[in-house]
Amino acid sequence: MRVELADIITSENKEVSKRVEVELMSFDSKLGRFPIVKKAPFELKFVNENNKRLLIQGKTKVTIAIPCDRCLEDVDSSFSIVIDKEIDLTGSDEENSMEVFSYMIGTNLDVDQLIFGEILVSWPMKVLCREDCKGICKRCGANLNMTECQCQNTEPDPRMAAIQDIFNKFKEV
Ligand SMILES: [Zn+2]
Ligand SMILES: [Zn+2]
Fold first, then answer.
1. 95 and 140 share a domain?
2. Partner of 44 for a Cys bridge, out of 28, 54, 58, 106, CB 3.0 to 4.6 A?
C-alpha cells in the first residue's frame, strides 16, 4: 500500500494518523521466499515538525513461516515491528532526505517497502522449531523428531565410534 504524504509534507505542524494495510504476501530476500502467514492493518502517525522533519511512527506485528535450521519444518516466527523514522524536510541533511529512503517514492510512502526493511534488519540468525530439535538424518532424510531411523544403528558415525571406544576402555578400568 502507498500513502500520499504531500499534504503533510507541505503543511507545517500537521499531524495525521492513517490506518494502513500491509499488502506484502511474502518476504523475498537472497535467502529465499518466506510466506507471511499473519499480519494486520495498523496505524501510522505522521507529524510535520516545524517544516523541518517528517516523523513516521507506528507499531505492528507480522508472522512469517521460516524453516527450522535443523529439520526444515516451517516455524511461525513473529516480528514486532516498531517504526520510528525521521525524514529531513529542509534539504540541508542529505543523508536523511526523502530521496535516500527506499520506502519513499516521491511524496508517497511505500508501506510494504517500509515493513520489508524492518523485517530485514531483525531477521533471526537461527530458527529452531524447538531448542532440542533432532533435525533430519543426513543419510535417509527422516525427520528425527517424528521417527527413529535405523541408519545410526547399522553404521555408526566414526566420531561416535571413537567416543564409544574411549567409553568402553573407561569401563574396563
Ligand atoms: Zn526443527
Ligand atoms: Zn536415517
1. no
2. 58
